[in-house]
Structure formats: structure tokens, C-alpha cells
Amino acid sequence: MRTSLLTAIAAGALLAASGQARENRPVKCDIGDAKRSVSSGGPALVANVPSAMTPIDLNAVQMTDKKLANSVVVEAMFARRTETNSVEVITRFVNCTKKVVELDARSSFMDADQVPTEDSTFWKKVILQPKATGVYRGLSIGRDEVKYYLVEVRTSQP
Predict the structure, then answer these.
(1) Cβ neighbour number for residue 93 with a 10 Å cutoff
(2) Is the confidence at residue 29, as pLDDT, over 70?
(3) Does 75 have pLDDT greater than 70?
(4) For 118-130, what is the mean pLDDT?
(5) Of 82 and 53, more confident
(6) Sheet with 101-110: strands ordered across
(7) How far is the CA of 127 from the CAs of 57, 78, 114, 136, in angstroms?
(8) What is the 3-state secondary structure (H, E, C) of 102-127?
(9) pLDDT for residue 125 is more than 80
(10) pLDDT at 54
(11) What mean pLDDT is predicted for residues 133-137?
(12) Is the pLDDT of residue 92 over 50?
């Protein structure tokens, strides 16, 4: 009994120690994995001419340029209804470089038929320090009619 208790305590100490060691590790990214991720297979914007453009996944982030896609990873994306039933989208980015990255993000909101419910939001600047995270938030004006969203991200404009 005593031996198994000591073993459990030792195992707990090892788990705690490994958790602490992870807290001080610098961010490492695999941009290739992020760029090779496959479509969710869910709703997407598609051109009237099937091969005219790549489908744009909805309820997702769309990077508008390769340079940005080679330096920033979307760590997480959330969407929720507010108390007034509008939609708030939150996107957390990770800067995988050793330089400050400035990006602009905006949201578009659509109904069940993928018709825009309102104009896209204004571009908002997000400044990402080297190897750090940053957050973008977008809020719809529309309420019940909003069923889909898209967050577009571009390299920051002067």
C-alpha cells in the first residue's frame, strides 16, 4: 500500500514538473502543416464557374496573401451569440517569426443562403509581437439571420 502511494506521488510530481517545463518553451510553428490542412468539407463560397476560383470555407479564416500565410498561424477560432443575439467571432493568431507582424482582419456575415446580411466590417489592425499571440474580434449587426461568417486577413496596409 505504501509503495503504491509513493509511486502515485512520484508520478504526480513528474506530471507537474513536465507541465511546468512546458510553460517556458518558445513557440515553434509548422507553417507547412497549417497550409496543408484540408477543407472541413462544410459550407463554402464557390464561383458560378466551378474552376474559376478555389472554394472559400465559411466559418473559417481566409488569408489573402502568401507572405502572411508563411508567418502567421490561426491558433483558434470561436463564434458565439451575444446577449443581443448578434454573432461575435474571435480569432487568435500566432506570429511564428522573430519579427513584429502587423495584419488587418475583417469579418463578413451571411444568412443560410450565403447572402451577406450586412457590409463587411472595417479592417482592424492586429499587431503580433515576435513568437507571440494576438486576438481579432468581429461583431455582426445582424441577429437571427446570421448563420455563417468569414474572417479575412491581409498584411497590414499603411
Answers:
(1) 25
(2) yes
(3) yes
(4) 97
(5) 82
(6) 60-63, 148-155, 101-110, 124-128
(7) 25, 19, 31, 10
(8) EEEEEEEEECCCCCECCCCCCCEEEE
(9) yes
(10) 86
(11) 97
(12) yes
For the range 17-22, what are the long-range contacts, defined as Cβ-Cβ under 8 Å and sequence gap of 24 or more? none
What nine digits make up the cell of 44? 463554402
What would the DSSP string read from start to end of the chain? Answer: -HHHHHHHHHHHHHHHHHHHHHTTPPP---HHHHHHPPP-SS-EE--SSTTSS--EESSEEEE--HHHHTTEEEEEEEEEE-TTS-EEEEEEEEE-SSS-EEEEEEEEEE-TTS-BSSPPPPPEEEEE-TT-EEEEEEE-S--TT--EEEEEEEEPP-
C-alpha cell at 5: 502511494
